[in-house]
Amino acid sequence: MPIDDAFQKALKDMQGLSPYVTAAKSSADYSDGKFKVRFFNRTFLIHYPEVKVEEEGSEQPPERWLQVLLLHYLVTADGVPVSGMWVAYRHLPGTRLFERRFVQMVTTPLVRAFGNDIEGFRKASLSLGGKPMSRTGDAAFRFLALPKISMACILYLGDEEMSPSVNVLFDAAAPHYLPTEDLSLVGSYLSRQMQRYKSQLTGNP
């Protein structure tokens, strides 16, 4: 669906929501006619019932895809508790159409950027609010992408026998808060921001 059509549909889906119920289900704050939602290390305000999305501290309107994603989060949230169980994107429901894109947009670029750069991986993860976690792998970080959507990114350094790899995981409850396609966009955002951080450090675009 074209992004403008998706935005109009999301606006329609927002109509009639009970804001306090939605806030409780999504763990977003709601007061003074605005939802406040954290997305990684950024904060967004969604005005309601006259829906308007803006970023706290910025005069620029958020990218349209991100506005749609935030609205989808509020509409989809059903209040299911975070499970604490990690699953790969391909094991989420309905990912068959999006799995290849997820690999191309998320994990492959991360391997290219950080496959042999564990310190760069750590710094880029911390820049997005990542918290170190105990997992198999050479470095692993947990991210709170949205209030009820946890992610993990794990780096496996290569050796003489194996190439480096990156695994991006979601809490098993994530599909209760965003459609599967949107979760691929969350992963893509994480990947792009980590790559951008490294390019800023190295001076390479």
Quick synopsis:
The protein has 205 residues and is α+β, with helices and mostly antiparallel strands.
Tell me what you see in this structure.
There is one protein chain. The protein is α+β, with helices and mostly antiparallel strands. The protein folds into two domains: 74 residues, no CATH class; 117 residues, no CATH class. It is 40% helix and 23% strand. The chain is built from six helices and nine strands. It has a five-stranded antiparallel β-sheet with strand order 5-9-8-7-6, with helices on one face. It starts with a helix and ends with a helix. The model has no long low-confidence stretch (mean pLDDT 95).
Q: List the uncertain runs.
A: none
The major sheet is characterized as: 5 strands, antiparallel
The number of domains = 2
Question: Structural class given helices, strands, pairing?
Answer: alpha+beta
Within the largest sheet, what's the order of strands? 5-9-8-7-6
Name the features:
alpha+beta, 5-stranded antiparallel β-sheet, 9 strands, about 40% helix
Secondary-structure map with pairings?
Elements: H1 3-14, H2 19-26, E1 29-31, E2 34-39, E3 42-47, E4 52-55, H3 64-76, E5 86-88, H4 99-114, H5 118-127, E6 131-132, E7 139-146, E8 149-156, E9 165-171, H6 180-202
Antiparallel strand pairs: 1-2, 2-3, 3-4, 5-9, 6-7, 7-8, 8-9
Helix pairs in contact: 1-3, 4-6, 5-6
